[in-house]
Amino acid sequence: MTDTAPRPTLEAVAARAGVSRATVSRVVNGGDGVRERLVERVRQAVEELGYVPNQAARSLVTRRHDAVAVVIAEPETRVFADPFFALQLRGISKELTAHDNQLVLLLTEGRDDHVRVGRYLAGGHVDGALVFSLHLDDPLPGLIQHAGVPTVFGGRPGWSDGRGDVVYVDCDNRAGACEAVRHLVGLGRTRIAHITGPLDQTSAADRLDGFRDARSDADPRLIVESDFTHAGGERAMRRLLEHRPDLDAVFAANDLTAAGALRVLREHGRRVPEDVAVIGFDDMVPVAEQSDPPLTTVRQDIEGMGRLMARLLLRRLGQRAEGEGRADAPSSVVLPTTLVRRASA
């Protein structure tokens, strides 16, 4: 057995700095009313002693936990297989870390997990929540509203129209999809297929609308619903080749789907882009650049969107702590997309 050194206390910091315990508490917890000279003495004493604030006690004073829940409405098998989620989590983590906040990751496998997440959020363990990958019938928004936790959503929630209190970050899915299809039209392609994402998610529905903006007269057999996965892209591509073997272009709703489509096209001896041009959506570099051929795709700033989500939530939490009104409440943000041209189209 080894002896453990006693943890430095507020009293020890106060003695080292030559100030009262109350002064140390105000400095450590971010309070006002302490002269700068005393603040510096306290900070120096904290550093010298290696004092670490007791989070539970600090929360009683500040009513903040310095922790944010990130809720992804997908099973872990999907989350850890899709680079999209890693990029968004990296952006969120960078922003939270820069503001000394902890990230608590919550995933949902089924209905029981929705209840668990709602109960956790209502239990006062975190200051706010970042929620993304919602589906239209998802009960999470209602559970979150009941919990009373400040929230920012990733992606436009399908039920948010007309609600000014809903804050979200998204890209312009519809315009990005339309630009991709018009690019294919500009290449002289006339039989353009679309492999959608799950249409109970607004991102997939908006991308389908963008496809139709550019190809309002498309044959219904050229549109196949999928699920944003590599395997789903393979299945959809096989179905398209079965029903419309004469197709000459494919716009896939994300890069993983496009990668699956490319694999099936190779299996069937179709050259890309000579026989069939292919465009994806997201510009997830590990997928797009390593595809064969490298994938033309619509770029959205996934990591930047994660950072922006966290930034808006932290701003909302700061206003709440300071008792500010709704006049300066953060608004939803829709970011532009860009078409990144590579060899597939």
Task: Explain what you see.
The protein is α/β, with parallel strands linked by helices and 345 residues long. It is 46% helix and 15% strand. It has helices spanning 10-17, 21-28, 36-49, 55-62, 76-79, 83-98, 111-122, 140-147, 173-186, 202-214, 230-243, 255-267, 285-288, 302-322, and strands at 67-72, 102-107, 128-132, 151-154, 168-171, 192-196, 223-225, 249-252, 277-282, 296-299, 333-335, 338-340. The strands form two sheets. Strands 2-1-3-4-5-11 form a six-stranded parallel beta sheet, sandwiched between helices. A six-stranded mixed beta sheet has the order 7-6-8-9-10-12, with helices on both faces. Helix 12 links the parallel strand 8 (249-252) and strand 9 (277-282). Helix 6 (83-98) runs parallel beside helix 14, helix 7 (111-122) packs parallel to helix 8 (140-147) and helix 9 (173-186) runs parallel beside helix 10. The chain is elongated, with a radius of gyration of 25 Å. The relative contact order is 0.12. The model has no long low-confidence stretch (mean pLDDT 88).
